[in-house]
Design a protein that fits this description.
Layout lengths: L1 E5 L2 E4 L4 E8 L7 E7 L6 E7 L4 E3 L7 E6 L4 E6 L8 E8 L8 E2 L3 E6 L1
Parallel strand pairs: 2-11
Antiparallel strand pairs: 1-3, 3-8, 4-5, 4-9, 5-6, 7-8, 9-10, 9-11
Amino acid sequence: VQLQASGGGLVQAGGSLRLSCVASGRTSSTYYMGWFRQAPGKEREFVATSRSGGNTYYADSVKGRFTISRDNAKSSVYLQMSSLKPEDTAVYYCAARPGLTGPYTYWGQGTQVTVSS
């Protein structure tokens, strides 16, 4: 599975951005598709994830501000980010895993999101 993320950029605090991620290859292995992020000097952290045809989960830090959605017909996952804060600045990675549990096996290349104050 190959994941291609896009949509990052520079935005002012309070603004919005929409990230997109398209999967190709063995897309049957994308039972969960989600987003992680890594800020400078920090470890990669979970942001949100979506189960195919079902539930979504969010990190507490983004609940109520970010919305994850999927289009299975397009093998895509999206992250609508609103009310952005400077602390949301990070490289955002799209990831996927084939099962209900276990590690995220597939990772995209990352897209930079910078929120200015």
